[in-house]
């Protein structure tokens, strides 16, 4: 009986100490986790991926009077093209990118909704209407840019940072750049137009390629300023 | 015994209960209650530690004290002369252990015959003076650390200048009372108990006696001196064997092993939370611990190339830990220096943008690299096994290539008082910044450059390592 009692007492004692130690261990682990969480806040921040690209964020800002200066390459000739944003008044009228030199609209710009009621950005001329950006702009996203002309648009790349080819010193870092390829049905796969849209800037580069690496026209942003 | 007034809980203080517990005379019920009380009160455990420490001091003092056999014979003869009782004394328990003391012992026979009555009287006076001094010294010693130099006092008290009056040293006679030829020994009774039992003829020294021995002698004393008058010695005592012959000398078992239940089986207290390093305050230097660690393991992320080139990594560190709390070795803080293999990205530019082959792209590659670091660490140690603690480590380090946060769960084993080993599983998180490298890569060329998503992001890398090391401390 005494042996039994002693065994019971010892077992209870061990159990009690086991519980005590377990409690201590849990407290210690909790303390370590808490301290780790606090210290983790001091860690170097990992480069967070860019915010998701949207139609509005990557299209021209509708800022009346803003002037975009582009370097244009056409017919083996370079020139500078200055385009001013002209917001239509009243709002029902179209917004334009007017060529300051000629006073004529170079592009008509604006937002609309596609057949699925997704927000889309329009980049049109007198002869064509192009849905430059549409819906969700994930990598490899595609949509019909011009149903009449049979042009399909595809997001072919997304860059965290991009430096334009015409910036030899790489001074201007464009953040979150979308590269959209526009390909017309019936054309060779190597014939397409690339447009680069940067967050909060809009169109920064436009290239028309006919074959691998063969550029026949381009429009490259030089600067943005206001009147 | 249960009905004894002393064992009524209402009349017993905590000190009394602890003393009775140490003596093994505490009833089982009170004992269980006391153990529970101790288990929940650190302050009361400190009181227990004080008593145990005092007990050990007395035990140590007793080992250094040896009264020559002849001298003790003479002493008893003197006392017997006063009481006119001639009692044959059995060979005593204490035997001389220091030859110098024996050599200094004067001839007992000469003085016994020459100074029979006077020396007995002076001896008695000396003894009572010693008792008084010991009583008050014990009161002080109860609160203060015992630093008495017992051997020196023995030499002084046994010097011929003492006029052959074998007064025992004050520290040795602390709380000691002689009564007739009965010597009743109670281990390490503190002053409050002595004060409460003024009529109990008690000799307190460090001879470890069981409760039964103590009670037997107490009964004998009560029978012989029913009035509890120390000065009234019955002549019948002459016919009784001296109590000293009935008391076997034996070493005191550790309290944790003592069978104190009194029922044969007994309750064996297990003082799990009384660690030797806890009981005493560590000196400043002894609170430092120095370590050398070597660990090996794997790095993540990894790829085929890195696994082939460096399938296993080894890291080395040197560290110093400091015991934060002087009375507890639970919390340690430290600092260390070491080298570590980590995984990190390397950035570079190359031509061949799939969209426009004329443009450059920023590319990255993962590689292993070695970095050196300094780190601050904290450690929790929880007693797990004998001489082994369960450790939880956490630390943050600044490395030449980045920062690291690490944690470790391990065992800390004391091989000796100064040296030990430790083993653990460590997880290390290494983070770094690639902004500088990215800027350098950008400026390294000209023209269009595309930096794809997340190529320049510096995600953390991880090491899982088995760590083993040695430590030592003063």
Report on this model:
The complex is a heterodimer of chains A (227) and B (474). Chain A folds into 2 domains: 1-46; 55-226, Beta Barrel (YmcC-like fold), CATH 2.40.360. The longest helix of chain A has 39 residues, at 2-40. In chain A, a hairpin with a 6-residue loop joins strand 9 (174-184) and strand 10 (191-198). A 12-stranded antiparallel sheet of chain A has the order 6-5-4-3-2-1-12-11-10-9-8-7. With 227 residues, chain A is α+β, with helices and mostly antiparallel strands. Chain A is 19% helix and 45% strand. Chain B has 474 residues and is of the alpha+beta class. Helices cover 32% and strands 26% of the residues of chain B. Chain B contains 14 helices and 9 strands. Chain B has helices spanning 14-23, 28-40, 42-64, 69-83, 99-104, 108-114, 116-143, 150-157, 191-196, 211-224, 243-246, 276-279, 304-309, 435-443, and strands at residues 288-300, 313-323, 331-351, 360-385, 388-399, 403-414, 419-431, 449-452, 461-472. In chain B, a hairpin with a 7-residue loop joins strand 2 and strand 3 (331-351). The model of chain B is unreliable at 1-9, 85-116, 134-211, 220-249 and 273-279 (pLDDT under 50). At the A-B interface, helix 1 and strand 8 of A face strand 4, strand 5, strand 6 and strand 8 of B. Strand 8 of chain A pairs antiparallel with strand 8 (449-452) of chain B.
Task: Give me the secondary-structure topology.
The complex is a heterodimer of chains A (227) and B (474).
Chain A: H1 2-40, H2 55-58, E1 66-74, E2 77-86, E3 95-99, E4 105-113, E5 119-124, E6 129-134, E7 142-146, E8 151-163, E9 174-184, E10 191-198, E11 202-210, E12 215-226
Antiparallel strand pairs in A: 1-2, 1-12, 2-3, 3-4, 4-5, 5-6, 7-8, 8-9, 9-10, 10-11, 11-12
Chain B: H1 14-23, H2 28-40, H3 42-64, H4 69-83, H5 99-104, H6 108-114, H7 116-143, H8 150-157, H9 191-196, H10 211-224, H11 243-246, H12 276-279, E1 288-300, H13 304-309, E2 313-323, E3 331-351, E4 360-385, E5 388-399, E6 403-414, E7 419-431, H14 435-443, E8 449-452, E9 461-472
Parallel strand pairs in B: 4-8
Antiparallel strand pairs in B: 1-2, 1-9, 2-3, 3-4, 4-5, 5-6, 6-7, 7-9
